[in-house]
Amino acid sequence: MLYTYRQLRGERYSRRTIDTLVDAGTLRRAGRFFASRSEDDVVVEALRHGLRPTCLTAAEHHGLWLPPGSGTHVHGRRRVDLPDSYVGHGWHRVWPEDLPVASPALLIEHAARCLDPLDVGILADSALRQGRLHESQIDVIRSVACRVQWRL
């Protein structure tokens, strides 16, 4: 699980308690977020770099069907030198979402510019079947993905 500081404070954790949980390894710092011990190291490391997982990395996080592919797929707010194992999906002036990991709609939009069209279709079908995406969102994703080009 991923949490913001505000969420933890809302759960009645004091700053001292949060620091104690981090020191004990129960929580890990992940950029602006905190991650439980069970959170995937790939996601935590991307967040520590100031990046947010998307495309294949976010699909795995959400438990969607995964087409073949490699690397940690990320997007960010500013250009940074990406480690060799990272696949960049563009840079945004402002985060398109407040979520630490791209939503199914956003990850499929990014996947449309990265993956084979058949894989994108199967990925979208996986999200639809799991109830993580609505059919009306697919039309929006299709129109946006066809218009926008990445600035890599």
Explain this structure.
With 152 residues, this protein is of the alpha+beta class. The chain has 2 domains: 2-39, no CATH class; 42-147, no CATH class. 43% of the residues lie in helices and 16% in strands. The strands form 2 sheets. It has a 3-stranded antiparallel β-sheet. It has a 3-stranded mixed β-sheet with strand order 4-5-6. Helix 4 packs antiparallel against helix 5 (104-111). The protein is globular and about 50 Å long. Mean pLDDT is 89; it is low at 148-152.
The whole-angstrom Rg is 16 Å
Protein structure class: alpha+beta
Report the β-strand fraction as a percent range.
15-25%
Spans where pLDDT lies below 50 across 5 or more residues: 148-152
Largest sheet: 3 strands, antiparallel
How do the SSEs run, as a string of H and E?
A: EHHEEHEHEEHHH
- Strand arrangement within the widest β-sheet reads 1-3-2
Domains (count): 2
Taking the alpha carbons of the first and last residues, their distance comes to 30 Å
Q: Count of DSSP helices?
A: 7
Task: Say what oligomer this is.
Answer: single chain
Mean of pLDDT: 89
